[in-house]
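User: Okay, second chain of the day. Same drill as before: sequence in, structure tokens out.
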Amino acid sequence: MYHLLSVSSAMLISFLIGLLFAAMCAIVGRQKGYSTALCILLGFFGRLICLLILILLPDRMQEQYESDHLKQELSSLRQRMAELEQALEPTPAPEPAAPAADAQAAPPKRPPDAPAVFPARTEEVIACPRCGRHQKGNRDSCYACGLPFQYEHE
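Assistant: Same drill. Structure tokens below.
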């Protein structure tokens, strides 16, 4: 008889401990955004291991909040980019008025194939008059467009 009482009291204590872990798993799982019924079931049968696993699992509620916040920030950035792109759209350039007056004041243009004339060769960086590429001033021609360079002191 004494043996039966100790077995039944051990079963009762085990059942109460299972309920305690089930309640703790339900509380932790609900706070983290997991299914309460599943957490109760796992807590009752898995006890301490399941409680530790639930504590270590990521917080789904926090992840959802961060995801929503990032989506909102992304949409506002996209809207801002669209506004900036609209501001950068080219406007039609005004047509020059009276080109005859400018032609008298401007020096005559050289032909497009005429070589570019520089005072002397140098190790400093110069810009090609045709394409604007920067290069050393000791070259015979532009590496990008092939414009020949001519030097006055040669």
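Strands lie at 116-118, 125-127, 134-136, 149-151.

User: Thanks, on to the next one.
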